[in-house]
Structures are given as C-alpha cells and as structure tokens.
Amino acid sequence: MKFGYFDDQAKEYVITTPDTPLPWINYLGTQDFFSLISNTCGGYSFYKDAKLLRITRYRYNNIPVDSNGKYYYIHDGEDIWNPGTMPSKTPVDSYECHHGIGYSRFLSSKNGLKADLLAFVPVNTSCEINKLTLTNTTDKPKTFSLFSYVEFCLWNAVDDSTNFQRNLSIGEVEIEGSTIYHKTEYRERRKHYSFFSVNCPVDGYDTSRDAFLGHNNGNAFPDAVKKNKAGNSVASGWYPIASHQINLTLSAGESRDLVFVLGYSENPQDQKFIAPNVIRKDGAHKILEQFQTTQQVDAAFAELNAYWSKLLSRYHVESKDENVNRMANIWNQYQCMVTFNMSRSASYYESGTGRGMGFRDSCQDLLGFVHLIPERARERILDIAATQFEDGSAYHQYQPLTKKGNLDIGSGFNDDPLWLIAAVSAYLKETGDFSILNEIVDFDNQKEKAAPLYEHLRRSFEYTSTHLGPHKLPLIGRADWNDCLNLNCFSTEPGEPFQTTGPSEGPVAESVFIAGMFVKYGKEFAQISRHMGDNETAAKAEQEVDAMYQAVLDAGWDGEWFLRAYDAQSQKIGSKECKEGQIFIEPQGFCVMAGIGVKEGLAEKALDSVKEHLDTKYGIMILQPAYTQYYLNLGEISSYPPGYKENAGIFCHNNPWVSIAETVIGRGNRAFEIYKKTCPSYIENISEIHCTEPYVYSQMVAGADAVFHGQAKNSWLTGTAAWTFCNLSQAILGVQPSYDGLCINPCIPEGFGDFKLTRTFRDAVYHIEVKNPDNVQKGVKKVNVDGKEHEGCLIPFEEGKKEYHVTVYMG
C-alpha cells in the first residue's frame, strides 16, 4: 500500500493522507538552525545542539504519537481545523504534504478555504520561515480567525523535561508588536533568546500555555480558539508559548499571505545589558527585516532551491531505472547531508538529549557527504580527531556545541580509531588536499597535547596493531561496530553474577570484524604514508596488514564463513560450533571488502553462506540463528527479542557491505539484488508493512524471527545513508575517487543497460557514458577520454582542467 507518490521533477515526496503508519518527517536547515517537521506539522527546532539549545518543546512517546509542533488553527464558523490536520484532527476536504529538499509544504482545504503552508529554513539564516497563504475559493466573502501556536522549550532539553521544581518558575517572555520573545535564562547573562513573529498587526496574542489552552485542556481545541478570543496573557514561569490571533476577511477568490518567523539570536558576550531581564533585540530585528514581504520570502526560498540544485548536481545519473535515478540524484544524497549535520542526535527516534555526535558515526557519514561540501567535511574531520586520546583511542561521542568528548559514554569501542582513517582517506581521495594531514589537532581537546593529523592517523593504526589478543586478532574492547556485542564479561560458575575480566587477564575478547577493518583501512594508511613520503611507516604498516590478513585466515575462518569474534574465554562467536548465533553478517561483508579470502576462494563461500543463512525478502539479517535466551558472555546483543535490532534484525547499515563485497568478486546481479531489498524507493508499495518513510533509509528492519517481520525502525539518522550511497555510486555504478584521479569500474546487473553520469570531482566536471553491449556484470574493455583511447580504468586528475568527457565500454 502507498500513502503518497514521488514527484521526481519537483524533488518531492507527496503524502496524500495524514494517516501514515508512523510520522513521516523531513529536516529543515543546512548548517546551524534546524527543524524537524512531520507530515502533520509536528516537530521541533534547535540551534546547533538539540540538547543545549532546543527552541521548541516536543514530547516523545506521547499519545497521540506526534503531539507537538508549529500549529495554525483556523476558526471558520462552526469548524476549527489545521492545515496539517494536527492537533485538532478535524477532517479536511483535501490534504497533501509535500516533503521537498530542505522544505515541506502543506496543502489543505475546508469549507471553501484553501491553506498553503510552506516551511523552510533559509540558507545562512538562524530562523524558520512559515509562509501561510489562505485563499477563499467560494463566490462569497469569508470571515474567519487564525491562531498560531508554538511552545517554547527552556533551552536545555534534558533539564526542561526533568527539573520542574525550577523550570515552572523561570519562564519569561516579552512582547513587541507582533513579535513574541522567549528570554528564559537571559537574566542569567546567557546571550541567547528566541522569538516568534508575524508580518502583520495582530488582534490578540497569548504567551501562557495554560491561558491559551484552558485548564485541563489538551491542544486539539484550545479555549482561546474555541472562544475566538486571545487572552493577551503574559507568561511568568510555568509554560511559555507564542500565539498570535489574526482576524481575516477574504473576498471571493482573494488570497492573503502571512509570514511567520521562528528565530534564534544571541548578543556579543561583552555587549552591555539594558537590565538583567531586558533583551537587546538587534539580532532579531536584523533577521525579521529580511522576511517582511512575500517577495522577500519567495526570494529566500528560491535561494534555498538553487543551493540544493547546485549541491545535488555534483553527482547525477541517468539510467533506465527510475528508482536508481531518484535515490542517487535526490533522496540518498539529501539523507547523507542530514546525517552529516545530525549524526544520530535528533530524530523522531533519537531524542537529541544524549548521544550528540558519534565518533564512528560521523566518520562513516563523511563517506557519503564529502563530495557535496568538502570544506565542511574537512572541518568535521578536525573536530572528530580532537576527541582522540594520545594512545589513539577516542571518545565514542562528543557534544556538537562544545565539540568535547562525552564523558557519560567515554571510550573503549575499539573500532573507533580505524574509522578516522576511513574518513580521512575518503576526504583525501575526493579533494587531493593532503595539507589537512599537517594540521595541528589537539588530543582530548587539550591544546598542550596536540600533533599533526597524520600523527593522529598513525596512532589510530598503532592502537589496533598493539592491542591484539591470543589469536593475533584485534581486541574488541567494550564493543566494536556492534555496540551490543559485549564479549569481555563472563560468569565463573553457573548462576553466579557476571564479572568483567580483571587487569591480569585482559580484557582479551577479539573481533574478526575489526581485523577486516584493519586490513582495509591499514592499506589506506600505508598509501597515505607513501603520499607523505613516509615510506618507512608505509612499509611497516603493510607488513602488519599482511600479518592480520594471515591471522584472519588462520583463526577467523570457520569453514564456510568468517567467524565473528572470540569472547573473553576464547570461545568462538559466529561459528557453526555455536548453538545460536552461528553466522554474522559483519565479517562476511568487511573481510571480503578488504580483499581477504578473494584469491583463496573463500570470499565466494562466505557470501554464498550469507545468502543461504541470512537472506530474507526484506534484506539480510545480522545473525542467525537468533538468540533465544540471555548469554552472559555475549552481553546486550542477546537481551533483545529474536528478530529485533542486534539480535537477528536486518541492519540496513551493513547490507551495503555485503553488496559492495559482491562487486569485489564481480557478481553484479547479487549486489543489485541486495541493494534493492532495503532501498526505500523499491519498497514504497509495502509501506503498510515497512512503516517508515519510503524516501529515506532506516537503521533496522525486523528480521525473520520477529513478530512483525519487515517493519522498519529508526529512519533518517543511520549510517545506511552514507554506505548505500557509496555502494550505489562507487561499487555498483563504479565511479570511484582515488588519490590520483577518478577510477571507473562498474559492477551492474544484467539488463541494467547503458547509463550516463555527471560527476564533479576536484572542481572539474566529468561527463561519463557507460556502454555495455555485451550485457556483462563487470569488466572494462575500453575507455575513451576526450575522444582518445585511454589505458586502464583510472583517469588521472590534471590540475587546471575543468571538464572531462569519458566513455567506458564494458566487456
């Protein structure tokens, strides 16, 4: 069942009913000011940090599910309704939600009144614009009232939702004409405030939630709206809001535009205050001056569209498969931008109050983002590296506002260091900017402890190479990519509480997955070292990579597939010897991606085993058989019910690893089959099963053992976005950045046909045409560059050259 449709020309997904299985959301904002908005106008806004600078309040796990947002109530005769249907849920005569690239638009009507609500965050401006156009489609005049509504969060979202004994006393507002200022905390000499304004005189306002809603009333039908009379309330403590009342009369066929602005501003720290609780409004005035007219708003919206068109044009494919085209050209790249901005911090599944930016997560997100805005990728790499410790390990997460490591989570995830090499490698290949390696970067954000970024990479590599277990495989630490695989705990006697291994014993649990990472990214580190002229380090790295390769063959192969790990007592994990959890997806994908077992004939066996044991119609499960009880030596992974999350769920994040691995051995049919199973565009017609948005990837789909097999969870903020873009753009379509140029080596399914691709690479535009007359899955027999035959698949980058015309003949 579908709940809408793709409009590829407009770059929109059009939702045709408010009754989607879950809230289907969009992200507004490109750099500092962000909003989440659902298909019924739910959501919230924040500036830079969803925890510390939350502007509007949102209630997770509430009833109804999506129960707070930026709402507009229309009081028309006997009816009260909303353009996005929530929160009144009054039936409307027509409804559409258009989620576009950086904007959302709501088109609805009732009783001859049409509402067109456009929401977007302008480029380089700290505000959200809501342009509401109301049109009388009848042949008679229409008189009605409009009430706006936002509820302010008291900045720190955690404190806001817990510290009521304080927070119910500190809410403060100020009214200036049609602008309502939220200034809570300003008297504490904090420099920020927010505001909500409309570009016309108002007939009333409310800033107290209790006064606006009424005693013991919900937000579906506020008292002020029912009475058609705002109370002009001024909040003092309790729950500050911003609401405007605007009384309107439209003649037959007349339209009226109203521009609402939710903004954030801050004053310089040294700017003197008029009084402790009186804000200086210069910043707000400057923002509001830009958006007083429809023409100004339309110009800002056009600027946003141009911004995205330019970004998305950097990678553009034309094939006969419309799903490939829309995902590669629009939605997958868009999601990569969102994950770059948010990491895993703020969604409808992540509250934005805890995780912040992930070390591993942000490094992986860069893989799908670096081609869009390389200079922002450069800045992010330096931020991430500054959370690393001197020994090469790192904080697992850091707070986006302070950019300092998250002490609550700490460190000890032993895959983290190698992801930094992955991110830097991707940046270097994309940009050729080796100067970043000379940038001096703090360790643990301490300036007295700093070294060039290249030294950070060396310590990342050496942290892994010097933390090996009994089988010469990398120690897993607290966990590796699979946060729930906690192998350094055990029970000495049956029935006794678990213990962590002591200092004399380890911890000694080992990860075959990290071994695969070490081989793959160790090779990258060696290449980087050679580019730096550090041949001694490169040679040493290559020796250690070779030793790890052999260790995987010696201790990490189980006969038909790669082992997952060894626990603290050197028991195999992910082996046919295990009763449950016999095979895991991660090492099968990553070891083959690293080239392990390809020449020995093991790679094909491992990937065949994945298809035999882990495949389902909705994607590849993370493990099988599922764990049916809790195992102390495995930790959290066995605490989930079978089929969910890390216990045999379908992690869309690592399905691309197997697809990429299939391209390594040249099986384009299987690689594309895997790609399609989790690609939202291909499964749009089962949205009633899948539940999450059909235009973006989700983190997880329930596995075959689950009650609701095929149901997705945790959409938008997932490494699936970056890895799938890498899979499609580099492995399948085959356009791969390298240190010396662009390599073109597709691996496509039979019948895919010829395709064209435009790729901006280091400020040069490559016009690429791939022809496949023999209908092969992989193999390049001839390459022409600018009309001349070229040797090999690598097209060296030439400084100063701005355009390349490339024709690739497969065969």
UniProtKB/TrEMBL annotation:
<dbReference type="InterPro" id="IPR037825">
    <property type="entry name" value="GH94N_CBP"/>
</dbReference>
<dbReference type="Pfam" id="PF17167">
    <property type="entry name" value="Glyco_hydro_94"/>
</dbReference>
<dbReference type="InterPro" id="IPR033432">
    <property type="entry name" value="GH94_catalytic"/>
</dbReference>
<feature type="domain" description="Glycosyl hydrolase 94 supersandwich">
    <location>
        <begin position="11"/>
        <end position="270"/>
    </location>
</feature>
<dbReference type="Pfam" id="PF06165">
    <property type="entry name" value="GH94_b-supersand"/>
</dbReference>
<dbReference type="InterPro" id="IPR052047">
    <property type="entry name" value="GH94_Enzymes"/>
</dbReference>
<dbReference type="InterPro" id="IPR012341">
    <property type="entry name" value="6hp_glycosidase-like_sf"/>
</dbReference>
<protein>
    <submittedName>
        <fullName>Glycosyl transferase</fullName>
    </submittedName>
</protein>
<dbReference type="GO" id="GO:0016740">
    <property type="term" value="F:transferase activity"/>
</dbReference>
<keyword id="KW-0328">Glycosyltransferase</keyword>
<dbReference type="InterPro" id="IPR010383">
    <property type="entry name" value="Glyco_hydrolase_94_b-supersand"/>
</dbReference>
<dbReference type="InterPro" id="IPR011013">
    <property type="entry name" value="Gal_mutarotase_sf_dom"/>
</dbReference>
<keyword id="KW-0808">Transferase</keyword>
<dbReference type="InterPro" id="IPR008928">
    <property type="entry name" value="6-hairpin_glycosidase_sf"/>
</dbReference>
<dbReference type="InterPro" id="IPR037018">
    <property type="entry name" value="GH65_N"/>
</dbReference>
<feature type="domain" description="Glycosyl hydrolase 94 catalytic">
    <location>
        <begin position="307"/>
        <end position="734"/>
    </location>
</feature>
